[in-house]
Every structure is written in structure tokens, then in C-alpha cells.
Amino acid sequence: MTSAQADPTGPDSGGPDSGGFDSLRPDSLRPSYSEALQRLRSAQKSSKGAPAYSRFVNRRAGRFFAAAAFRLGLTPNMVTTISALFSFTGIALLALVPPSWLLGVGVVLALAIGYALDSADGQLARLRGGGSMSGEWLDHMIDATKISSLHLAVLISAYRFFDFDRPAWLLVPIGFTVVSAVSFFGMILNEQLERRAALTTGATRNRPQATSALRSLLVIPTDYGLLCLIFLLLGAPMVFFAAYTLLFVGNAGYLALAAVKWFRVMQSLDRRPTAMPTSEGTS
Question: How many domains does the chain have?
Fold first, then answer.
């Protein structure tokens, strides 16, 4: 899952002159909800690599939340915190309450709203003129905690409430925890190393600005939004766990293939010559 918080050194960043609206203006001078929504529609970040739910559902939901948060005068960090409250409420319900259809609906709503708000914080940052280092840090820390905690909550629920004939099935959420944590760390590490390479070599990696709809559908097993939706099946625990296991297999396979690609990208960055200092940068 990619961070929704604006990257302070990337295309989502901005400053006082970046064209963002000032949410600290009085209500009479602040753009209306519809104006903020229109601005957000024209300022969406690249869809590169985004799976279907995240791209076609979550970003759009986040846009509405971001416009509302702007009108209320909320900061991106406030939205990030509200997102965390929804997400961790859903995770706590999953771990503590016996599975049922009603629980499934509650968990899905909490996780889905939390996920939409996780998209809204970055969109709000762009609307206000750019992100911040502290905002990016907070967003990444909450995402990392949420990703691992969700699968550990599945483990707790399965241990307490599921009727397994073999305890070895409990290894599935443990494995999913590892895969999700490594995937998230890998994506963040890639961004940091590519950023470092751009600073030392002066070259940047060419990235497509959009992903085809077909590819978004093909990578949907890795979509956090789809993971949220399968908790609707909690009323039938064994059916839920079968779907959960299939998602685990899909995510593990994707990580294995992606790791090979990521390593090759890093090798290509190694082969680039280091930029020579200019006369202006020497004394």
C-alpha cells in the first residue's frame, strides 16, 4: 500500500507559492466545498502502480473527505489521526469480538473509512499547498503499524474463535504479517534509494504517469481495499479464512516477483556515474 500523505520532496509538495488554498482563512473567504472538490479533481497524483480499489474507489472517496476536512479547517495530520482511530477501532473489534455477519460489516466500515481518510490526508496536503516532513513521518508510522496489526488481529481471532482441525493454519496470518511488512518497507526503501540516486547522479528513473485499468485489476490481490472487503465474510469464518489465505498466496507471489524487479532497478542505479561537482559548488 502506498502512502497517501504528500511527499515533501516529490510532486505533491508545495510551499506558499504552490497555488494551494489557505485553510486558515475566515469561512467567508475560504473556497466552498464544491470549489475545493473541483481543485482536488485536477490535482490528483499519478495512478502508477495503483490497484483497482485504491485507484477507482478509495481515491475518489478520499477526495470527498479531503474537501470536507478543508472546509472544517482540519490539517492533514488531524485527518491522519482520525484515519488511525477508525482503522485501529476495526482492528480491535476483529481481535476481541467473536466473528459474525454484523461484526464483519462493522470491521469493513471502520477499515474502509480509515483507508479513505488515509487517502484524504495527502489530498488535503496538496490542496493546502504541499506536505511536510512530520506529516510524511506520521503517515508512514501509522501505516506500518496498521498493516502488521491487522494481520495479527486475524491471528488472535483465528486462535480464539475459529475451529481449525490443524493449528498449522495459524501460520497463514503470521506469514501475511511478514509479507505485508516487507512489502511496505521495500516500497519505502525503493523511494528513498531512488531519491538518493537522483541527488548523487542527477538522473531520475523514468516512470509512467498512469497504470492501465487492466493492470490495476491484475494486481488487485495486493490491494488493501480488497483485504478490507473480505472481512464481510466473517459470518462464515472458514469461508473468510479461505479467501484470506488466497490473498496471502497472491501477495507472497507478488512480493517474490517484485523483489527481483526492485533489485534489478537498484543494480541499474549502481551503474550510473556519480555526478561531478560543479565549479560553483567548490571552494
Answer: 1
Domain assignment of residue 104, yes or no? yes
Torsion of CA 140, 147, 261, 268, to 10 degrees: 20
- Which grid coordinates belong to 276? 561531478
Please check whether residue 137 lies inside any domain of the structure. Answer: yes
Quick: pLDDT tens for 107-153.
999 999 999 999 999 899 888 877 789 999 999 999 999 999 999 99
Q: Which residues contact 2 (CB under 8 A, 6 or more apart)?
A: 49, 50, 54, 187
Residue 94 has pLDDT above 90, yes or no: yes
Any residues with CB less than 8 A from the CB of 146 and at least 6 apart, and which? 84, 87, 88, 91, 114
- Specify if 256 maps to a domain: yes
Quote the CA–CA distance of 204 and 50 in Å, as a whole number: 21
Q: What is the DSSP string of the chain?
A: ----SPPTTSTT---TTS----TTS-TTTSPPHHHHHHHHHTTPPP-TT--HIIIIIIHHHHHHHHHHHHHHT--HHHHHHHHHHHHHHHHHHHHHS---HHHHHHHHHHHHHHHHHHHHHHHHHHHHT---HHHHHHHHHHHHHHHHHHHHHHHHHHHHH---S-GGGGHHHHHHHHHHHHHHHHHHHHHHHHHHHHHHHS------S---HHHHHHTGGG-HHHHHHGGGGGGSHHHHHHHHHHHHHHHHHHHHHHHHHHHHHHHHHHTSPPPPPPGGG--
pTM: 0.80
